[in-house]
Amino acid sequence: MKKIAVLLVIIICFGFIKFQIIDHSFGSDENWSEYLGGADRNHYSKLDQINLQNVKNLKVAWEYATPDSGQMQVNPLIVDGVLFGVTSSVQAFALDATTGKEIWRFGDPLKNWASTSRGVSYWQNGNDKRILYT
Question: Cβ atoms within 10 A of the Cβ of 66, count?
């Protein structure tokens, strides 16, 4: 009986693994609206504007520097052409993803902050869209 139960558990586990391997990766739109690109966290985008032939020609389009000191450890999100992130003093910010121009910054800068915030989250339900920041 134990052998049958173990065999059943193994079969069920392989079924879940097979389900996870199905392509749930980042879609072909221009958003990067989840941490690490998607629910599967594979850091992958199907966008093909940059490829093996032209990657060597890339140049810096813009840079963003905050007036804060310290490390900025954030996995930015891009939603509808806006890049969202968090500074090292834990202020949320939004930038035009094409130009790098700051659209807004939110929150009082925390001095002597002993930790880092690694970002924001995006939520959408129909036309209701929100950036979550804690």
Answer: 17
Nearest to 67 by CA among 89, 86, 93, 85: 89
- Please tell me the distance from the alpha carbon of residue 107 to that of residue 124, in angstroms, as a whole number: 23
DSSP 36: G
Q: Is the pLDDT of residue 6 over 70?
A: no
Lookup result for tokens 């586990």: 13
* Confidence category of residue 40, pLDDT binned at 50, 70, 90: confident
More confident residue, 84 or 88: 84
Using the 8-state DSSP alphabet, how is residue 109 labeled? P
Q: How far apart are CA 81 and CA 83, in angstroms?
A: 7
Please name every residue paired with 125 in a beta bridge, in sequence order, or none if there are none: 128
Whole-prediction pTM value? Answer: 0.70
Residue reference for tokens 């659209």: 103
